[in-house]
Amino acid sequence: MKILIAEDDAVSRRLLERKLAVWGYQVVTCSNGTEAWAVLQREDSPNLAILNWMMPEMDGVQICREVRKLKRRDYVYMILLTARDLKEDIIEGIEAGADDYVTKPFNPHELNVRVRAGRRILDMQAELMQREKLRGVVEMAGATCHEFNQPMQVITGYSELLLKDVPESSPLHERLLKIREATAAMAQITTKLQQITRYETREYFAGVRIIDIEKSSRGEPDKSGTEDSQAEKPDSLPVCGWTS
User: What's the number of domains the chain is made of?
Assistant: First the structure.
């Protein structure tokens, strides 16, 4: 997990960086608020930020306000680092959009606990987003299969009838067999769509990603071992029904 540190004091910044690295985090550092704001506007920006309240150009509270205006789909959990500990100051920071705060000089154990709390919240949000994506995929799959089934049954039925009337010596017989094979392959695809239990994608062309039916269905277990790619089976989601 990446964490952004925005701290104008070089000693404090280096100390924070070392502690977070020891705890297993990837660290992105900035020496002023303007740099931090630029990082947080990027698509690949960290979802957790530790911001010093008092910084040149842009302070931590201003950054919190601007981040909340972005209305990003992925949440940014922001911890203010401040020497201010009055109730009024804390309220001001929270109202600006901060999620938590740590007083300076910071206690490493307290910082670790608060960072872990932020990570748990981000993990829960990621899981909810994954469930939302999965719900959309399952509903789309159900509607698609429902629309495909009837015409496929018609094609299969007529091809079977024609196969009975057309002799095997006829070139038409071989073509009818290919039609039957193609409809059988389509039936297998719709079966996999009915068995979707995860949200997995793969690259299709020029950076465009599409749903990977094989990995998303129950037919192939998830081999990545990462939390982000493993979605539980929500009881409320229709897996085999035709809900749209």
Answer: 2
Domain that holds residue 167: 133-216
Q: Are residues 14 and 100 in the same domain?
A: yes
Read off the pLDDT band of 11 (50, 70, 90). Answer: very high
Predicted confidence (pLDDT) per residue in 126-164, tens digit? 877 777 777 777 777 777 777 777 788 888 888 888 888
The answer to whether residues 102 and 163 belong to one domain is: no
- Residues 51, 141: one domain? no
Give, in order, the Cα–Cα distances in Å from 148 to each of 153, 227, 232. 9, 33, 27
